[in-house]
């Protein structure tokens, strides 16, 4: 995109007579070396923006960006996404009661059932997310309040967690495992989906709870202490559960030893803090049916059964459940497509404007090269 | 108590400063002229002492070490410990010793704002509540910077220790216990009597008591102080001399030991440093700026075109911190002798009987060969004169006028001769005279020896001795000197040489060749040669006798002897017969006029500050084309009147105090030049003489107690008026295209520089070669020393040193300009890059509850300024060239942006700020929009903090590195490598830091495990990065292109300038032919006093007791006019 003038400078600039006298072995002269670098004559390319390079570049960028943008937008529009807020803020929502009567220590679970309707079928794998709003998982003190060493299965950190975890470091003179504010605030609502068959029967939809975390997190970053000891209750015996938790870490998923303790995937997903105060986290995967004939989620009525544990009313938060399909570019988000189309169009437009300006001033600019 | 000062009091009247007298300034001698004068040849044996009597209460007793240890000379230092007021003689230039190094050096370093700032930052970072970044991000670079500086300081100081030791351990003879004992310099004490031998260094401030020469005379070479190689004579006081002669070689010694305080330079100014928000100025800026400055200095040192092969002297940047200021110089203050000129006088031409004899025939340089002087055994083979016709004329003795011409040159002078084996060595009081006598010698009229009243010369083939009847001294009012001789055949003749203006008034009406000689003089003047007219007159015995009586009477008259003598001289110096004129070239250094013309074209004003006389300075002004014929030259009187008018105007105006007078001093359209002497300078600026004036006013008031008068218009009412007066003077001088200050002391040189600095707020540069320039070199923003010569003081106190004045244009127009442009580019980009980087945190803080969570990984923040973005901009700061050196020399106008400071100022800073804000906004909000509610292709939400950080950081690195590519105008393979390398290093390091292995080893330090690989797997995020980079760069390209299209580019500007250049070339010839005003080219660097010593009987005294063999060679002793 630039005009070039290769600038190899000739080797003049010193008087022929001034060459230091004396051959090899003579008294060392203080004469500086005549090298291209020391004399600042390195061969160089001196680029200048010219109409011949800038204008085509703008048109080219326009021509490339617009199709990309259209592609992105179309893909985004083809993605099916359903979102439902089950916080229970207003009086008539099913979870209103649960949201009102809240205490971390209540023994009886509050459940509520949120009905919803899907108008279109969801093909292929469907991903189920929970979304929280106004939850500052990116707050500095919050982000810092964890002990990665402990989570990585380090024995000494297990019993003596990092100071960063304060005030969730010890409880009853026992160290907390997992320590820190992030772990303590683990999302603990339980969500279940039921398909309301037109004949009135409720069919539970199978939700897969593994494969929702990054491979590196599950296998590298998070490890249970005591490597091969399968009895986690012994491993964690000298520790205390986080204050807000109902059950200790080794009872997160007693049914599956590979999903229990620190390597519980719900826990891992939660520990990967979000960038923004409104975020989604992958909760479950609804795998496509084997027969491939019926959609994963056919259109119709559904019911979301919530065991309502997680309080968000105190900070004006919202809880949502999201169902979404996925494409090559991920989830539904028209932003990037629109942005590409806009930038592409602006480039094209600018190209035209610059062309006009160039024609107006162009004749003055014909000889912008550096004379050598 | 005795004082050398007494002599200074006898200088010119108070109201009308004497142009010829160097005004006395008391602050320079004691401190700066301390060490190492070089005692030279003539004096074989001197006894010396030193004084310092700046305040009453200091007294010394010679040869009595106990005396100055008495209680009244003690001062309290600490509690009851007392110390002598007189310090020792040991030189101490070092700063640290073994114990104090660490604390003192750290203290010095933390005096720098930057270091202190980083220390504070470090302390803040250590406090866990505040810390947003790990402490090592600041500590490691800080320790590195402190360590390197400390090592550098240590090495410097060790060198100083070594030098001090060497000087302190030099030997000299001190009178102790009744005999001279060899002592080290550092053990000298106040009052010691020292014996120095010929050609020894002078170890301290010393008062001459006596010397083995007649009349207690000795010659001092001050080359190391002022670069002047001719000898200065010093004479002991009569009383001490006589007594010491009786007491057989005693001496006494007084000492002032004001410490040789090494200057505190290196006040690093990190401009633009404090203005910016704290976090935007990383320590890497500091380090990078230092690296770039160091690199620029190296490039100056390496420059072959500033290397002087004859003396094997490369240029040397002694300070690294001032390179970019070299691109902003507006005023240059230059010394004359040794800087503009070579201090070599060459006898170039002469005109005898109206015929001009020439050195170079300009049209046929090939056919001329140097005249063969082998027939003359006394010829000095360094002498070159190419008119062999003249030689043959002399040898054939056809033309008596030609013989007379050279006979005059060999007789009428005050040169002294020394026989060194077979060779004759002339000791001339002024180089002009030396050149003339040497010329005569080469043409066969060899000055052989002189006694008190005879002069012996070799006249081609036979020796002849002339009786000297009178020597009519040179002084600057008379502008001529004469000698009256009795020839061996008894006739009396007066020979006279002097300024054409003076001589022509005194010529006999019948004198021949007046017109032709005048024409020749005009030509000489045009060639800026220094001329002297030679003439003679025959005197009858009776006439001489009559005159001689008057002369005797005048020379013994008590009051106004000088004036009386002048009158008597006037009587005899008339009806002269013109022989011819000599033309001497004060050889300029190579390329001086071209350099001055070039610098003038770059709008740099050049002021010449010299201790020389007005005529000489003016002559040099013309020869280096600083002054041209079309200029109107203003002298001190004129300036004084103008300034006084301005002051009256201000006084009469009731609001004058607040109003700023804007009108110009010189309303005529012609070019102006200012030639002002030190005396007038003091007068105009109300400097000095204050005490004396106050005393005088007191006396006046006593005398006329009742007569109240209006304030003396020449006196300042208060400091405000004085300040205004100074400002007016600077304004006026700046209206002139050339300013020459002559007869100024080193102190005044520095004052002039500081005046301009103060009132013009401009970057100033001083260039000089001698110790008399040290003040001015230190005062100016940038000091340049001419190296490769004997004296080192100027170089030692300079920031840059090179061997030739002409290298100045390359230093300023090429290196200075480049350094300035590079530094500006570097700073603009650096601020941009860090705004773009840092402000993302700021935007992010709106979304994280203002909790100062960083938008990037800690390691990225640590490494961003070190690895990922530093190298390309560093290379731009080191290597970038918008135009190459030849073009910047060819088009001096390219220098102007530097003077206006238009490449880095508030405007540029805010543009960088705005650009940075824009980029940071894009880098935050494009990923924000893309991340807000989307998921990755595998269903996992990529909207986690770590993925966001990776995307933002990647966009930033690519944007910033492509941006520097756009800014680079000189692409070498190194730049290319650096840009690609930085991006590659970023990805390489990131993938390493995010790898599984490193997390297992350091689980708490590297927490971004897998973030890079997971995030950058997603095409969606790549598209986000590409979009971000595109949006950041496209507007920049667009604006750059528009700017180039609408406003003329650099290339176009160059073309315009080229046209201008050619036009000027075409115009030039017509200029020169224009009517040249007639002016005298007379200039002579002689000072008065020598003839007096030679001629008057009192100066030559026989000394049978002391080394009678000396009488042969040394008997003359001129008297000092100024010391």
Automatic annotation (TrEMBL), chain A:
The lineage of its organism: Eukaryota, Metazoa, Chordata, Craniata, Vertebrata. One of its GO terms (cellular component) is Golgi apparatus. It is a multi-pass membrane protein. It comes from the Eukaryota. GO terms for biological process: phospholipid translocation. This is Cell cycle control protein. The keyword Transport applies. Keywords: Cell membrane, Cytoplasmic vesicle, Disulfide bond, Glycoprotein, Golgi apparatus, Lipid transport, Membrane, Transmembrane, Transmembrane helix, Transport. It is found in: Apical cell membrane; Cytoplasmic vesicle, Secretory vesicle membrane; Golgi apparatus; Membrane. The chain crosses the membrane at residues 48-74, 335-357. Its main location: membrane. Residues 1-32 are annotated as: Disordered.
Automatic annotation (TrEMBL), chain B:
Belongs to the cation transport ATPase (P-type) (TC 3.A.3) family. Type IV subfamily. ATP binds at residue 805. Residues 1065-1079 have a biased composition (Basic residues). Coiled coil: none annotated. CDD domains: P-type_ATPase_APLT_Dnf-like. The keyword Cell cycle does not apply. Residues 705-716 have a biased composition (Polar residues). One of its GO terms (cellular component) is plasma membrane. Its cofactor is Mg(2+). Gene3D superfamilies: Calcium-transporting ATPase, cytoplasmic domain N, Calcium-transporting ATPase, cytoplasmic transduction domain A, HAD superfamily/HAD-like. PROSITE patterns: ATPASE_E1_E2. Residues 67-139 form the P-type ATPase N-terminal domain. Residues 1-35, 700-721, 1058-1083, 1101-1123 are annotated as: Disordered. One of its GO terms (molecular function) is ATP hydrolysis activity. This is Phospholipid-transporting ATPase. SUPFAM superfamilies: Calcium ATPase, transduction domain A (SSF81653), Calcium ATPase, transmembrane domain M (SSF81665), HAD-like (SSF56784), Metal cation-transporting ATPase, ATP-binding domain N (SSF81660). It is found in: Endomembrane system; Membrane.
């Amino acid at each position: 995109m630039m005009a070039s003038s290769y600038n190899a400078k000739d080797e003049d600039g010193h008087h022929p007579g001034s060459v230091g006298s004396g051959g090899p072995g003579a008294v060392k002269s203080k004469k500086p070396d005549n090298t291209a670098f020391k004399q600042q004559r390195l061969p160089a390319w001196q680029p200048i923006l010219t109409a011949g390079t800038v204008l085509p570049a703008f048109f080219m960028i326009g021509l490339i960006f617009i199709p990309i943008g259209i592609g992105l937008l179309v893909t985004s529009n083809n993605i099916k996404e359903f979102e439902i807020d089950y916080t229970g803020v207003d009086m008539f929502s099913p979870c209103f009661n649960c949201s009102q009567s809240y205490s971390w220590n209540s023994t009886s679970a509050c459940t509520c059932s949120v009905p919803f309707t899907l108008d279109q079928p969801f093909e292929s794998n469907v991903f189920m997310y929970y979304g929280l709003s106004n939850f500052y998982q990116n707050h500095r003190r919050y982000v810092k309040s964890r002990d990665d060493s402990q989570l990585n299965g380090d024995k000494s950190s297990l019993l003596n967690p990092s100071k960063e975890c304060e005030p969730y470091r010890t409880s009853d003179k026992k160290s907390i495992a997992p320590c820190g504010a992030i772990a303590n605030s683990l999302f603990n609502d339980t969500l279940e989906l039921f398909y309301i068959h037109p004949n009135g029967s409720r069919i539970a939809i199978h939700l897969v709870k593994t494969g929702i975390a990054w491979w590196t997190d599950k296998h590298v970053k998070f490890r249970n202490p005591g490597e091969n000891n399968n009895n986690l209750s012994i491993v964690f015996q000298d520790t205390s559960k986080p204050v807000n938790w109902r059950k200790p870490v080794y009872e997160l998923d007693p049914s599956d030893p590979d999903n229990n303790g620190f390597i519980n995937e719900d826990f891992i997903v939660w520990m990967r803090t979000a960038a923004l105060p409104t975020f989604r986290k992958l909760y479950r995967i609804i795998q496509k049916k084997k027969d491939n004939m019926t959609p994963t989620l056919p259109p119709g009525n559904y019911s979301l059964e919530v065991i309502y544990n997680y309080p968000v009313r105190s900070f004006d938060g919202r809880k949502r459940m999201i169902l979404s399909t996925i494409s090559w570019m991920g989830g539904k988000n028209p932003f990037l497509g629109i942005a590409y189309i806009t930038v592409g169009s602006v480039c094209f437009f600018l190209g035209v404007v610059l062309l006009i300006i160039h024609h107006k001033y162009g004749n003055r600019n014909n000889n912008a090269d550096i004379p050598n | 108590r005795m004082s050398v000062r007494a002599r200074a009091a006898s200088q010119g009247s108070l109201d009308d400063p004497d142009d010829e007298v160097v005004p006395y300034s008391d602050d320079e001698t004691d401190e700066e002229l301390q060490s190492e004068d070089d005692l030279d040849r003539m004096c074989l044996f001197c006894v010396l002492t030193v004084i310092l009597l700046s305040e009453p209460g200091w007294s010394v007793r010679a040869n009595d070490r106990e005396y100055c240890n008495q209680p009244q000379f003690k001062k309290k230092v600490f509690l009851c410990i007392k110390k002598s007021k007189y310090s020792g003689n040991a030189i101490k230039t070092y700063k640290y010793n073994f114990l104090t190094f660490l604390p003192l050096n750290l203290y010095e370093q933390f005096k720098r704002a930057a270091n202190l700032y980083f220390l504070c930052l470090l302390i803040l970072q250590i406090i866990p509540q505040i810390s947003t970044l790990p402490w090592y991000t600041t500590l490691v670079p800080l320790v590195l910077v402190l360590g390197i500086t400390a090592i550098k300081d240590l090495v410097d100081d060790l060198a100083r220790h070594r030098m001090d030791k060497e000087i302190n351990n030099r030997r000299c003879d001190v009178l102790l216990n009744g005999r001279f004992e060899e002592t080290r310099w550092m053990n000298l004490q106040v009052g010691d009597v020292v014996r120095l031998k010929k050609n020894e260094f002078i170890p301290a401030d010393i008062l001459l008591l006596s010397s083995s020469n007649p009349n207690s005379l000795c010659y001092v070479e001050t080359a190391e102080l002022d670069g002047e190689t001719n000898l200065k004579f010093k004479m002991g006081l009569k009383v001490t001399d006589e007594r010491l002669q009786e007491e057989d070689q005693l001496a006494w010694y007084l000492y002032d030991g004001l410490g040789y305080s090494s200057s505190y330079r290196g006040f690093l100014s990190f401009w633009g440093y404090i203005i910016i928000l704290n976090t935007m100025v990383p320590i890497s800026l500091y380090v990078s700026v230092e690296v770039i400055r160091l690199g620029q200095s190296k490039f100056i040192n390496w420059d072959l075109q500033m290397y002087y092969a004859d003396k094997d002297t490369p240029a040397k940047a002694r300070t690294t911190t001032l390179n970019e200021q070299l691109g902003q110089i507006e005023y240059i203050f230059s010394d004359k002798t040794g800087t503009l000129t070579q201090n070599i006088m060459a006898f170039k031409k002469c005109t005898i009987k109206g015929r001009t004899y020439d050195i170079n025939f300009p049209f046929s340089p090939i056919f001329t060969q140097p005249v063969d002087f082998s027939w003359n055994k006394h010829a000095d083979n360094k002498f070159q004169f190419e008119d062999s016709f003249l030689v043959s004329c002399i040898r054939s003795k056809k033309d008596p006028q030609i013989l007379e011409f050279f006979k005059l040159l060999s007789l009428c002078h005050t040169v002294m001769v020394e026989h060194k084996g077979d060779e004759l060595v002339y000791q001339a009081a002024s180089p002009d005279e030396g050149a003339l006598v040497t010329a005569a010698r080469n043409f066969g009229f060899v000055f052989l020896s002189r006694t008190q009243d005879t002069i012996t010369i070799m006249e081609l083939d036979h020796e002849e001795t002339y009786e000297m009847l009178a020597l009519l001294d040179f002084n600057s009012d008379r502008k001529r000197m004469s000698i009256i001789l009795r020839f061996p055949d008894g006739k009396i003749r007066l020979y006279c040489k002097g300024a054409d203006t003076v001589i022509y008034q005194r010529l006999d009406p019948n004198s021949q060749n007046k017109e032709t000689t005048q024409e020749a003089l005009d030509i000489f003047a045009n060639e800026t040669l220094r001329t002297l007219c030679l003439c003679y007159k025959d005197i009858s015995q009776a006439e001489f006798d009559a005159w001689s009586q008057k002369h005797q009477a005048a020379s013994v008259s008590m009051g106004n002897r000088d004036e009386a003598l002048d009158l008597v001289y006037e009587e005899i110096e008339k009806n002269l017969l013109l022989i011819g004129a000599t033309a001497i070239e004060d050889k300029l250094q190579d390329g001086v006029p071209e350099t001055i013309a070039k610098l003038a074209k770059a709008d740099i004003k050049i002021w010449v500050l010299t201790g020389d006389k007005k005529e000489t300075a003016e002559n040099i002004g013309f020869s280096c084309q600083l002054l041209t014929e079309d200029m109107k030259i203003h002298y001190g009187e004129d300036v004084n009147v103008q300034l006084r008018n301005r002051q009256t105007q201000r006084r009469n105006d009731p609001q004058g105090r607040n109003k700023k007078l804007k009108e110009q001093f010189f309303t005529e359209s012609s070019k102006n030049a200012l030639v002002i002497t030190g005396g007038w300078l003091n007068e105009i600026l109300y400097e000095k003489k204050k005490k004396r004036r106050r005393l005088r006013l007191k006396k006046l008031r006593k005398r006329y107690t009742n007569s109240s008068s209006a304030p003396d218009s020449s006196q300042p009412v208060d400091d405000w008026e004085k300040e205004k007066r100074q400002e007016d003077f600077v304004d006026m001088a700046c209206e002139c295209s050339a300013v020459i200050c002559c007869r100024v002391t080193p102190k005044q040189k520095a004052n002039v520089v500081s005046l301009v600095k103060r009132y013009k707020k401009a970057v100033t540069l001083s260039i000089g070669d001698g110790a008399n320039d040290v003040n001015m070199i230190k005062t100016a923003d940038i000091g340049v020393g001419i190296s490769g010569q004997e004296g080192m003081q100027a170089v030692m106190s300079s920031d840059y040193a090179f061997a030739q004045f002409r290298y100045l244009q390359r230093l300023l127009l090429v290196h200075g300009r480049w350094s300035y442009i590079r530094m500006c580019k570097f700073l603009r980009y650096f601020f941009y890059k860090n705004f773009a980087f840092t402000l993302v945190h700021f935007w992010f803080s709106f979304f994280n509850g203002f909790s100062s969570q960083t938008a990037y990984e800690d390691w990225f923040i640590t490494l961003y300024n070190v690895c990922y973005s530093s190298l390309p901009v560093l290379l731009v700061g080191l290597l970038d060239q918008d135009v190459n050196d030849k073009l910047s020399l060819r088009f001096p106008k390219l220098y102007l942006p530097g003077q206006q400071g238009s490449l880095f100022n508030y405007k540029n800073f805010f543009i960088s700020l705005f650009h940075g804000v824009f980029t940071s906004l894009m880098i935050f909000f494009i990923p924000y929009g893309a991340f807000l509610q989307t998921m990755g292709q595998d269903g996992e939400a990529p909207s986690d903090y770590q993925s966001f950080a990776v995307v933002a950081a990647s966009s930033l690195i690519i944007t910033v590195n492509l941006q520097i590519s756009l800014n680079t105008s000189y692409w070498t393979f190194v730049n290319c490598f650096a840009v690609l390398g930085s991006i590659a290093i970023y990805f390489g390091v990131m993938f390493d830091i995010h790898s599984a292995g490193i997390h297992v080893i350091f689980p708490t330090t590297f927490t971004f495990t897998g973030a890079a690989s997971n995030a950058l797997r997603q095409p969606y995020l790549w598209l986000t990065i590409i979009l971000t980079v595109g949006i950041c760069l496209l507007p920049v390209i667009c604006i750059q292109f528009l700017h180039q299209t609408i406003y003329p580019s650099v290339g176009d500007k160059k073309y315009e300038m080229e046209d201008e250049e050619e036009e000027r070339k075409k115009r030039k010839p017509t200029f020169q032919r224009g009517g040249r005003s007639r002016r005298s080219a007379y200039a002579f660097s002689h000072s008065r006093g020598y003839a007096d010593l030679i001629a008057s009987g009192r100066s030559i005294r026989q000394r049978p007791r002391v080394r009678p063999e000396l009488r042969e060679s040394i008997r003359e002793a001129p008297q000092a006019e100024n010391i």
